[in-house]
Structure formats: structure tokens, C-alpha cells
Specification:
By secondary structure, the chain is of the alpha+beta class. The chain has 2 domains: 4-168, Creatine Amidinohydrolase, Chain A, domain 1 (3-Layer(aba) Sandwich), CATH 3.40.350.10; 172-437, Alpha-Beta Complex (Creatine Amidinohydrolase), CATH 3.90.230. It has 13 helices and 20 strands. It has helices spanning 4-17, 44-50, 80-86, 91-97, 110-118, 135-152, 163-171, 175-198, 205-218, 282-300, 308-325, 333-339, 433-437; strands spanning 21-25, 31-33, 36-37, 58-61, 71-75, 103-106, 124-125, 159-160, 223-224, 229-232, 253-258, 260-261, 270-275, 365-366, 369-370, 378-381, 384-386, 408-410, 413-417, 422-424. The strands form 7 sheets. A 6-stranded mixed sheet has the order 6-5-4-1-7-8, with helices on both faces. A 3-stranded antiparallel sheet has the order 10-11-13, covered by helices on one side. The longest helix is centred in the middle third of the chain and has 24 residues, at 175-198. The relative contact order is 0.11. It binds glycine and manganese (II) ion (MN) (2 copies).
């Protein structure tokens, strides 16, 4: 990996901080049970600025300090007796020589050195409420500055969230990031194709999960970006179904929502739905074609100057029109949309930003104004229809005939906004009825 990318990001971030110091902690290890931990997952903000993949570290960004002292990294020090159990650490030497820190200290010196580094900053950018261990230290330093403020007139007068500065940078992907998202999309699409061509009645959902996740790992990805959803039949109507514990039945659809996370944390997020035996029933095909039509219309709407809300409403309009035609809804399309009378079939949004986080950072609205799509933004487009008995049918709407029940369909692609429109990154996973029924 070219670590200069992280230096360029730090330069932009330091500029945006405009005299405020930022404290950005790494993630901590999290206990799974007893003395076993979950696999380590770095904090995406910290990763974006440092490329440093160890737990517990803390990065300081200090635009008020002279050049050459503006990026300070506190890290777990090298300690052979611990590394022999838990693996290699870069230590303070590696933090400087490999990861480009101006200065690095062992983590246990943070409390002693933080007052010195934060002195003279116009404000402190720190995300309150997320970093249990570091927050008391930051607030303590700030409180001491405030105590002295009346006497020496110096000190940060505010603690602000770093998110607005940092997340507006993360929302707009540069060409290097787009390449990484393309790679995540490639691996994820190929895994979906493998799953579709492997699936058959009698297999278990978990076996297919293994096929997908084996492929992720075999292609060099870190693993799944989120808990893979492999949902046969009615299980597809549970949006976050992750137990993957049923057998696949002849005649059912299978919904798979899975994507890989690369070694540098860029993610894919794809959903495909197909018949387990390779042939759609009449009702399955009617609803599948409707979701596909809504998805294609919503994809069409992804272009610079449009916004995520408009993309969502495009999908909603097509879905509601189709549901009225199929007599699953009754009434005037605009009124049904206004009343939300379709939400027992379609209860989620049509997409989200995608990047280092699967539900990536970045605002969708600024006050009353929707954020306009710009080249370099990446989002998912993922309409669906879920027919089950879980939600009540709204008053005045037709009750649902049994032949529709248990059908859950979602189609999800990852999409880059380009200068002229969009580029779908996940075309490698088939979604047309013809391709699926071949
Ligand atoms: N896989 C999570 C989502 O589609 O948003
Ligand atoms: Mn998604
Ligand atoms: Mn998904």
C-alpha cells in the first residue's frame, strides 16, 4: 500500500481543522467471551488518516504547532514478551519511519504529554461519547485549560466534533479509493455468482455462507464486511436475518446480502435474490421484475446534481405503481406514497453511502437541503419488497393473499457517481431474469 495517500489526507484534514487540535483514537480490542477477543477492526476515521492497523493508538493533529510537529502518534510500544503472544507491533520507531508520524510516544505517556500538545490550540476536535478510555483524558486537559483561561487568556474555548471536517473528506472518494471499492465489488460480485451457481434445494444457508466467505478470503479480502445474510424463503423478510440456519427449499427464493472487506477496509455490499431451483414461480417473477424495474429506475437517477432522497423516491414510485397493478395496494399512487401506505412491503431506504464503513459516513441532508450527488461519491441502490404477516396491513388496503406471502426480494448494487452519470461497480453479479433462469 502506498502510505503517501495517508499523508495527503492528513494535509487536507489539518487544513480543514483551521487551528483546532484533533484527537483521533484507534479502536480497542473487544472481548468476545472470557479472555477471547473479536477480530480487531480499526476505527475507520483513524485508519483514513494514519493507515496504522494496531489497537489502542491515539493520533494527534496539531495545526497550531510548527511544521514537523503536527502529527503525533501514541502507540503500544514494542515489547517482545507480549509480541510473542499477540503478534508484531510497529512501536514508536515504526510509527515514525514507516507511518510518517512527526513524533511518536508510547501510549502510556499520553496522559502526561497531552496537555503540552493541546496547549495553544483554538479548539479541540474530539468525538465525545465514543472513546471511553481517552475521553476523560481529553476532557481533563480541556478543563485545566479552562481553569487557567481567566488568568492567562489562553485555552481552547470549545470541544467540537471532528466529523464534519473528516466525513466530508471521506464522502468524496479519490481515484485510489474508487479502485479499491472496485476491487471489493469485483470479489463480492464473483462470490455472489459462485453462490448462485452452487445453490440447490437441500443445501443449508450456512453452507452457502461458507462458499461466499471462502471466496472472499481466497481472493485476499479480510473477510465479510458485515454479517452475511443468506436467507431462504420467508427468512428474506427479516431484513437483518443472520442466523443462516435453515435448509434451502425447492420452490423458494434465496436472498443473499453479502460483501467483502478488503485488507484496507474498503467494502462491497451486494444483494441478489434468485430461485433456489433456478425457475421463478409466477408470483416470484412478478415481484422480482418489479423490484428490478425500481432498481434500474433508481440507478438511472444517480447522477451529479441529484440527491439520495430523489433516488429513493424514484424507486418508491415504481414500486407503488407496480404494487397497485398487482392489486397488492389500492388507491392513487401519489396518495399512497404520501400516506406511506406501502411501508408494510418496503420499509427501508433505497441506499446509503459506501466506503470504509459499509454504511459510510457523510451527511445526506444539511438542514433542509439534501446533499447533492457529486462525482466520486459512492452509494448503494437497494430497493426491495418483503411480503409477510409481521406488519399490519394499513387500513383501507387489501389483505394479502397467501400466494404472495413469504416472498422477500432485494436487489443491491454499489454505484459510483461520475461526471456524466454513474458507474455500477457490481455488474459482475447477474440480476436479469434471463441470466438467472439460464
Ligand atoms: N448489508 C447492509 C445493507 O445493505 O445496508
Ligand atoms: Mn446496503
Ligand atoms: Mn447489503
Amino acid at each position: 500500500m502506498d502510505l503517501r495517500i495517508f499523508g495527503q489526507r492528513r494535509d487536507r484534514f489539518l487544513e480543514k481543522l483551521d487551528g483546532k487540535a484533533a484527537v483521533i483514537p484507534a479502536a480497542s480490542l473487544v472481548t468476545h467471551h472470557a479472555d477471547c477477543e473479536y477480530p480487531f477492526r480499526q476505527n475507520s476515521d483513524f485508519w483514513y488518516l494514519t493507515g496504522f492497523d494496531e489497537p489502542e493508538a491515539v493520533a494527534l493533529f496539531l495545526p497550531h504547532r510548527p511544521v514537523g510537529e503536527q502529527y503525533v502518534l501514541f502507540v503500544l510500544p514494542k515489547e517482545p514478551a507480549i509480541e510473542v503472544w499477540n503478534g508484531f507491533r510497529w512501536g514508536t520507531e515504526g510509527a515514525v519511519s514507516i507511518f510518517g508520524a512527526d513524533i511518536s510516544h508510547p501510549l502510556n505517556e499520553l496522559h502526561k504529554r497531552l496537555p503540552y500538545y493541546l496547549k495553544g490550540a483554538e479548539g479541540i476536535a474530539f468525538r465525545v461519547g465514543k472513546h471511553q478510555k481517552i475521553e476523560p483524558l481529553v476532557l481533563q486537559v480541556w478543563a485545566e485549560q479552562l481553569d487557567r483561561l481567566p488568568r492567562n487568556g489562553q485555552g481552547a474555548t470549545s470541544v467540537v466534533a471532528p466529523c464534519p471536517f473528516l466525513h466530508s473528506l471521506r464522502l468524496r472518494k479519490d481515484s485510489w479509493e474508487v479502485d479499491r471499492l472496485r476491487e471489493a465489488a469485483r470479489i463480492s460480485s464473483e462470490a455472489h455468482e459462485l453462490a448462485r451457481t452452487t445453490a440447490c434445494p437441500g443445501m443449508s444457508e450456512r453452507e452457502l455462507q461458507a462458499v461466499i466467505e471462502h471466496y472472499f478470503l481466497s481472493q485476499g479480502a479480510r473477510g465479510p464486511a458485515y454479517s452475511s445474510i443468506v436467507a431462504g424463503g420467508e427468512n428474506a423478510c427479516v431484513l437483518h436475518y443472520t442466523s443462516n440456519s435453515s435448509l434451502l427449499l425447492d420452490g423458494d427464493l434465496l436472498l443473499i446480502d453479502a460483501g467483502c472487506s478488503l485488507s484496507d477496509y474498503y467494502n462491497g455490499d451486494i444483494t441478489r435474490t434468485f430461485p433456489i431451483n433456478g425457475r421463478f414461480s409466477g408470483e416470484q417473477k412478478d415481484l422480482y421484475e418489479l423490484v428490478l424495474e425500481a432498481q434500474l429506475a433508481a440507478l438511472e437517477a444517480v447522477e451529479p446534481g441529484n440527491n439520495a432522497e430523489a433516488v429513493h423516491m424514484t424507486a418508491v414510485k415504481v414500486l407503488v405503481e407496480g404494487l397497485v397493478e398487482l392489486r397488492l395496494l389500492r388507491g392513487n399512487v401519489d396518495s399512497l406514497i404520501e400516506q406511506g401506505a406501502y411501508r408494510h412491503f418496503y420499509m427501508h431506504r433505497t441506499g446509503h453511502w459506501l466506503g470504509l464503513d459499509v454504511h459510510d459516513v457523510g451527511a445526506y441532508r444539511l438542514g433542509e437541503f439534501p446533499v447533492e450527488l457529486e462525482p466520486g461519491m459512492v452509494l448503494t441502490v437497494e430497493p426491495g419488497i418483503y411480503v409477510s404477516d409481521r406488519l399490519p396491513v394499513p387500513e383501507g388496503q387489501p389483505s394479502i393473499q397467501d400466494r404472495w406471502k413469504g416472498i422477500g426480494i432485494r436487489i443491491e448494487d454499489d454505484v459510483l457517481v461520475t461526471n456524466t452519470g454513474n458507474d455500477v461497480l457490481t455488474t459482475g453479479a447477474a440480476k436479469s431474469v434471463n441470466e438467472i433462469q439460464q
